[in-house]
Amino acid sequence: MAVYTEVTDEALRAFLAAYPLGALRAFRGIAEGVENSNYALQTEAGDFILTLYEKRVDPRELPWFLGLMEHLAARGIDCPLPVKARDGQALRTLAGRPAAICTFLAGVWPRRVRPEHCAPLGAALARLHLAGADFHEVRPNGLGPAAWGPLLDRCRPGGDAVQPGLVAELDGALAGILATWPVPGALPTGQIHADLFPDNVFFLDGPEGKPRVSGLIDFYFACTDLLAYDIAVCLNAWCFEPDGSYNVTKAHALLSAYQRLRPLSEAERKALPVLCRGASIRFLLTRLYDWTATPAGALVTRKDPLEYLRKLRFFARAEGPASLGL
Amino acid sequence: MAVYTEVTDEALRAFLAAYPLGALRAFRGIAEGVENSNYALQTEAGDFILTLYEKRVDPRELPWFLGLMEHLAARGIDCPLPVKARDGQALRTLAGRPAAICTFLAGVWPRRVRPEHCAPLGAALARLHLAGADFHEVRPNGLGPAAWGPLLDRCRPGGDAVQPGLVAELDGALAGILATWPVPGALPTGQIHADLFPDNVFFLDGPEGKPRVSGLIDFYFACTDLLAYDIAVCLNAWCFEPDGSYNVTKAHALLSAYQRLRPLSEAERKALPVLCRGASIRFLLTRLYDWTATPAGALVTRKDPLEYLRKLRFFARAEGPASLGL
């Protein structure tokens, strides 16, 4: 939940004057998203989301993110479409921050994932990967395998305070992951979301009351990386139960629906377990870093890093792709 | 900013099924309000606010609050109107909490108060008081003068850590306030909002671009108390500049617009300075209590109690009603 930057009404009015959106009707901070400040904006033209990009986002990368969303939306993906101001620019400045208005997407993110969510999720992920295939600008994954060692180093001083022996366990796990990580070119690469957690996927009731995906949001970790790594992120984020168990029914639904649109290669299938371990350690490390670095009393919700230690251990024990639902 | 209770989609759907509002379209946590969990809810019938009442609100008092809002809305006050379910009940249960859906109010609360906001505010406050005159159910002010001594006692252990000498200064100030507080019956009494801070007042552009009040929200401190005390709360909340100075232009605009609709009696005018000191100490004490009692790392924004010490000192020095803008 986050509103880091307050916007005065005068500044907002001046900002909106650049857009062909009519008069302001409502403006409320949204208690979702942890990286940026998000506001629900209502004007005479309808509902929008206004995002102010906070310090974790590099302003030089914003044109890539907005360009990707525009590209995907043009290909029928239900993602936020950046709204251009009268001068043709979508990326502007408000309250001293880079800022953009995007279209509002209907739908509700699932607070509790059910198996019925996982097939539509898998299909939406495959469609996202296919739609991104002709977006040719590359953004390296700043939180990919090359970043995990340095990130672990930054957690070294405080890591064992979270759990005794944690740093040594992660040293061993990371070495194992990096030793078997797919070499460049071995697996299909493209534009991935890289953070497709439940709170970034909206659903509405489809035919017969079955959930259908109505929106994918928050593309600010998107990058150019292994497509199957995006699946591994989703298996981590969607297929564990609150008690820590892996729900292979959910995973199978996700993977099957994905493969109906983009079948995995044999190399991708074989690599899936290590990609899952990689995704576990990526979220483990950023959470661990936030946990050790966030000042007590800060407004940001600190997420439990050990949730991902349990997932990492599960994937390390898993015996091959079949046990993951493939 | 607050979403304390997460609502699963199944629970939300089951809850909504009791209402004649059509299918769910969107549901987002709102990063505003500190007492309850608020969600922007969109259904086929339009925009609404769903509130889950958290532990600071006594469930037995909710019918009073909802009844007052219904009463005021029926008399033309732009306040949230509780939406009744098909069984005629507006107050229900969701995720183990009392919950209600209210109408959505357009408008934007002023992040920076300008003098032009204060006349419409004063008029809106007077209209609120007049509209409440025939709502006869009494709710005593749980944070009125009788509560301040016990509240100060609870701040005694930690108060001086916030500022040395603070507790002794507040002991002296409170004794002075209570010694000159109006006796029961001396001033007009009625239904007051009691927390009409800028984030509880929405504005839209009116004729010639001048702000007009489009909504008053968050009635969960409302109670039956001195009407002029509500004015004192607003003078505290709206008429100080960020540098701590009292803006008599704003105060005069507020008071004049109020008096055009409900002129103050001579007794109310004379009492205004002590009512202002009372309002200062009321917010000072609740903030001080929250400051000393909130665990470090909690998600709630702790508001600076010393802001209200400066206001209290200003009102204590003020020489009569005229210096307050009357």
Structural class of chain A: alpha+beta
Query: What's the total count of β strands of chain A?
Result: 9
Give the CATH H-level superfamily of the largest domain in chain A: Aminoglycoside phosphotransferase (APH), C-terminal lobe
Helix fraction of chain A by DSSP (H/I, runs of at least 4): 40-55%
- Sheet with the most strands of chain A? 5 strands, antiparallel
From the N-terminal CA to the C-terminal CA of chain A, the straight-line distance is: 35 Å
Low-confidence stretches of chain A: none
Overall 3D geometry of chain A?
globular
Oligomer: homodimer
Count of helices of chain A?
9
- In sequence order, what are the helices and strands of chain A, one letter per element? HEEEHEEHHHEEEEHHHH
- Name of the CATH first level of the largest domain in chain A: Alpha Beta
Mean pLDDT metric of chain A: 93
Beta content of chain A comes to 15-25%
Number of domains of chain A: 2
CATH fold annotation of the largest domain in chain A: Aminoglycoside 3'-phosphotransferase, Chain: A, domain 2
CATH architecture of the largest domain in chain A: Alpha-Beta Complex
Largest interface: A-B, 41 and 40 residues
Alpha carbon gyration radius of chain A: 20 Å
